[in-house]
Amino acid sequence: MVNTTLVTHFLLLGFAEDPEMQTLCAVLFLLMYLVALMSNLLVFTVLTLDPQLQAPMYFFLKNLSLLDVSLVSVPVPKFILNSLTHSNSISLPGCAFQILLITSFSASETFILTAMSYDRYVAICCPLHYETIMSGQSCMLMAGASWAVGGLFGALYTAGIFSGPFCGSSVIPEFFCNVPSLLKISCPETLLVVYPSMGIAVCLGLFCCVCIVFSYVHILSAVLRIPSRKSQSKAFSTCLPHLIVFNIFMLSAFMVYLRPPADAPPLIDRLPSVMYTVLPPILNPAIYTLRNGDIKRGLRRLLPALPAHLCPSPKTPSCKQVA
C-alpha cells in the first residue's frame, strides 16, 4: 500500500546546513541576482528609450530581458530570505506558485527564442519582404502568443502536479521547488495526470528546436551564397548571440530536467539548477551587448543623458566632468 501523506509544506535543502555558510550563500546569490536584475533592466531601458533600436530583433530582445528578470526573480529572493533567516521551509501554495511561474516563464522564453530565430531567417533569407512579414502587428502577435501559451502551459503543468497527494518525504533536495524533485514524491495517480503535460512539454520543446535548426540551416545556406566576406561576417554576427543564448538556455534546462534521478544528491548535483535559473539571466545581456555594436552605441547615448537630467546646469563642476 502506498504511503500517502498530507503535505502542507516542503523542506528545501539548499546548499549548506551551517548558519554562517547559509549567510554566505545568501550574499553570493544576492550579488548574482543584482547583476542579473540591473543588466537586464539596463538593456530593456536602452531598447525602449533609444529610437534607433526599434527593429523587431530588439523588440524580441526586450521580451527576453523581461523574461530573464521574471525567471530569476521567482526562486532567488525566496532562497536569499530563507538563508538569512535560516529557515528552509516553503508552504504548499508557495511551492505551487514557484512551479507555475518558473514553468510559464521558461516555456515563454523558449517561444521567444524561436521567434527570434524566425526573425533572423526572414531578415537574411527574405530581406525584400522583411518589413512586410515582421510588421509591428506580427511581432506583437508572436510575443503575445509566447507569453500566453507559456502561461497556459505553466497552469496546466502546475495543476497536474498538485492535483493529488504526495507519497513519501516532503524534502526537496534543491534551493527552490523543482519539477523533477516533486515528481519523485508524487503518487502514481498524480503522475498519470502529469504525464500528458510532460508529453506536451517534450513535443513543444522539440518543435521549437526543429524550427530553430530549420531556420539556421537556411540562414547558413543563404549566407554562404553571399560573395562578400564582409557581408557574410556581418550576417553571422547578427545570429551568433542568439545561437549562444539558445544553447546556454537549453543545455541548462536539459541538465535540470533530464539528468539521472538521485535519492540524496550531493552539493555538486544542485549546481545545474543554479545554472538554469541564474546563469542565462546574467549572461544574456552581456552576450548581446558585447556582440552588438548598435546596443553598445545605444548604451553610450543613454548613459551620458542620465546625469544630464541630474545636472541641468553645465557650469557646475560635476556637470563639466560629465561633459
TrEMBL record:
Domain G-protein coupled receptors family 1 profile as annotated: residue spans: 39-288
Keywords noted in UniProt: Cell membrane, G-protein coupled receptor, Membrane, Olfaction, Receptor, Sensory transduction, Transducer, Transmembrane, Transmembrane helix
Keyword Cell membrane recorded: yes
GO CC annotation, single: plasma membrane
Annotated Pfam families: 7tm_4
UniProt membrane topology term: Multi-pass membrane protein
Function (record text): Odorant receptor.
Descriptive protein name: Olfactory receptor
